[in-house]
Amino acid sequence: MANKLQAARLRRKLRPLFIIIGAIALLEGINYGWMTWRIHRAKNALSNYIEQHQAMGEPVVMADFQGHSLPADQNAATYLSQAAGRLTFANDAERDALSEAVNCSQPFSDNVLKTLRSITANNGPAIELVHRAHAYPNADWHITLKTPVMQTLQLPHINHQYELGQVIKAAAMYKHHVGDDSGAFECVVGLLTISRALDQEGPFSSHLVAGGIRRMACRFCLDAAKDLVVSGASAGGDAGEKKAVKRSAIQLLIVLLLDDESPNRGINAAWQFERMELHDSLVNSAADANLYVRANFYTEALFLMKNEDELCRAARAPSWAVASPIAQAAIAPGGSMPKLTEALMPGLRNTIRSDFQDRTVRRVAALALAMRLYAIDHGGAWPVDLLKLVPSYLQNVPIDPFSPNGAPIGYLPGNPPSLYSVGAGGNDKTAISGDAAREVFRLGGERAATTEKSAE
In whole angstroms, what is the distance from residue 403 CA to residue 277 CA? Predict the structure, then answer.
């Protein structure tokens, strides 16, 4: 009897504890179910987003970027890699002098001219391989992708391709100096070939290097426009010059420089690759995260990938005035991990600005070539305004990508004249008054002004 009473007493004492334990277990079960449901919902939302974009033919996850290959003899990257491997320098000092030499304008110093001459003479086989690559529009660089992509991606060839671009520009500069403008503009096409091939790769670093090489070609066009020798010119031209560049080649180059299609493909590829890297990083982090925060990684992946889409849309916008607010909204901290958004996104706005600067320089270079053709046809006289180029040399005057109201590239008459963009600040007064302008380009290569600090 005593034992039964003791047992009853113990049960009464332990009953509150059992109730508490049961309540905790119930709450944990509810919490587990809630967390599992959140994870399931976040994963489904991310999967739906991926499937929608894959249905539109876009690569989204790492597997979408693998398994594509080209026959070696039809792969531009094959010839460009061989060209980079064939680069020859007289010594380390000449190699070190290359970067400085390709940024010089005429008249060249004796040392610069010596460097340009030697590099051109020693790299004929590499230059020829670049010309061969131009015949093949597609490139496969055989990038190896493995998780985590952000930490394991290796692109050693982009440094070699940038150096190859510098060598090709050096050859263009020297050939122009000695009167071989036909050879010089073959090198310009070579620079655009390297840029086009790198822009198909995907990673942002490749896209930025492609833009840098493209700007080398544009800068050369500006440098050479003042005294370019053209064959097949109309009255007053340079017809009959054996090493003159053909008029038709200049006209084709103008079309290529004004065409936004190829650079826009590079922009799409870069942002899609960036989106894939974010997906790979966050989804793999989710797998290692505890149950309570795992859903946040899937939610953040979706949030950031949608932001990447908006940033890509901004980069392809018709003007900086349209792009800037789109980009600003996309980089605003948000999502389930606002600190992560704040760390990743702001630098990408500068990348978008760089794409608009690339677009500006291409249009300025095309204008410079059209102005040279005009001068050849008019006894050396430059046009009094850019409308004189329409329709004989251009279909229309290119729009300044940074103009807030869609105004064309600006023109400052002179001998030689200058072209200008109002820059990210969108202020036209500085360029007209001659004060420090956003970006002023003087034909002949002398910079009339430097770029101001970018407006935020």
Answer: 33
- Strands 245-246 and 418-421, by their bridges, are unpaired
User: Please, are residues 186 and 131 in contact by the beta-carbon 8 Å criterion?
Assistant: yes
**Mean pLDDT, the chain, as a whole number?**
86
Q: How far does Cα 390 stand from its chain's mean position?
A: 30
CA atoms within 13 A on the CB side of 433: 8
CA 37 – CA 429 distance, rounded (Å): 59
Helix (H) or strand (E) holding 290: none
Nearest Cα to 351, choosing from 309, 411, 408, 311?
A: 311
DSSP, res 399: B
Length of the chain: 456
The amino acid occupying position 383 is P
Judge whether 112 and 104 are in contact, CB under 8 Å. yes
Q: Any idea what the Cα angle at residue 418 is, between residues 416 and 424, rounded to 5°?
A: 165
Q: What percent of the chain has pLDDT over 90?
A: 63
Eight-state DSSP code of residue 318: S
pLDDT in tens, 374-402: 999 999 999 999 999 999 999 999 999 99
Q: How far is CA 306 from CA 67, 104, 163, 203, 310, in A?
A: 25, 43, 35, 18, 7
Q: What is the pLDDT of residue 456?
A: 32
Instruction: Tell whether the torsion through CA atoms of 84, 251, 199 and 327 is positive or negative.
Output: positive
- Beta strand extents in 405-444 (DSSP E only): 410-412, 418-421, 439-442
Extract the tokens encoding 293.
């925060």
The 8-class DSSP code of residue 397 comes to P
Report the C-alpha gap between 440 and 320 in whole angstroms: 18
How many Å apart are CA 277 and CA 285, to the nearest integer?
12
- In terms of Cβ atoms closer than 10 Å to its own Cβ (0-12, 13-18, 19+), residue 152 is exposed
H helix intervals, 289-391 = 291-315, 320-330, 338-344, 346-377
